[in-house]
Amino acid sequence: MFLQLLGVFAEFERRTLIERILAGLRVKASRGLWVGGPPPFGYCLVDKVLCAVPDEAIVVQRVFDEYLAGDGAKTIANRLNDQGHQTRKGSRWTAQAILGMLRRVTYVGRIRHRDDVHEGAHAAIIEPDVFEDVQTRLGANGGAPRTRESRTYLLAGTLRCGECGAAMTGAMAGGNGGTYRYYRCTAAAKDKGACQGVSVRADEIESQFIDEIVEVYKRVGFFEAALESVRANVPSVIDELSAELVATRKLAASDRQSIDRYLRSFEAGRFEIDEVQDRLSELSASRAARDAWCAELEAKIERVQSAAQPAPAMDTSAGMVERALRGPMDPATRLFVEAAVAAMTIDSDRNVKMTLRVPSPGTLVSKESSLVELGGIEPPSIRR
Question: Contacts from 92-96 at CB under 8 Å and sequence distance 24+?
Fold first, then answer.
């Protein structure tokens, strides 16, 4: 009981430290100072105050001027890339990066902290009236890229581009007096230089997907053999996952201890929080990533353990699967697709590669096929 009481006080102390740090950041923002993290494109930090970088500031001003002149974010990004301009990280400009720049209040001499905006101690790069005009146009355009509802696309979130690995998102297009659904590479849609672009008619690839997955579910003997193979490997897989889980938990605990040491040192007045803000952010991100991976490993262990259970009844599965996939789209149908498909890609030559999971998690079934023409598919081959 005494140890439990100490733990309560330790947690209270830690929360108090965090609240004090957050309060310090709020005060810092109210004074117009940068509250932490890398400064935005166009600025650098000098004695904890944002200062304009002349070469980058010219690019920022150009982006605002061209957007007000009527150019879209994607057009501006492509033009910057064609002329050799790069982001601070040395990568290509994207429409999303341009839109983020156009919305940033830092460029008009302000500091945003959470939901509050304060007057900054730094000089503005963009005139307030120019910034307001840009916000008006952004609002007229919807403020953010518009996306189609994914619920009408069976493979949304599952199908990926075989050229660059980006997700294939659903879209609509007109032609021959009507409209049709199709999937397109999101990377190519954002930046033509990132990928040569892959697109495919949605009805076409969804029909192929349903035909092939139903054919697989008809092979009852195949599933029984696959499940038996999985059961034999369950103990060794669980041992590997458990060992990785223990190691990851130790690393996450080490991150938490490091954060606590920094907080205690800050409370003792050994340094200013600005001096270690970047390191604290790095440790917090590392801890969050490791905690998330621990949760994923625990879920994997549970899924693998379920593989040792008796085989499900497969006699009527094919018919049930086909009726569900060809019927109206609902959340259960999407959950089934996500559970049944481990990976699915299509490349620019219309080659489709699909990896399926058998009913018991952990076993993968590889299927490869090629779309020969719009109306037909090459018979797939299946191997365990």
Answer: 92/191, 92/193, 92/194, 93/191, 94/190, 94/191, 94/194, 95/145, 95/190, 95/191, 96/145, 96/190
Gap between the Cα atoms of 35 and 112, Å rounded: 9
Q: Are 31 and 121 in contact (CB under 8 A)?
A: yes
> How far is 188 from 14, CA to CA, in rounded Å?
46
d(CA 259, CA 149): 41
pTM, 2 dp: 0.41
Average pLDDT over residues 169-184: 73
Give the closest residue to 208 by CA, choosing from 155, 152, 164. Answer: 155
- Residue 60: helix, strand or coil by DSSP? helix
Report which listed range, 188-197, 233-242, 244-253, 280-289, is most confident.
Answer: 244-253
Q: What is the average pLDDT across 338-360?
A: 79
Is pLDDT above 70 for 102? yes
How far is residue 322's CA from residue 214's CA, in Å, rounded to a whole number? 6
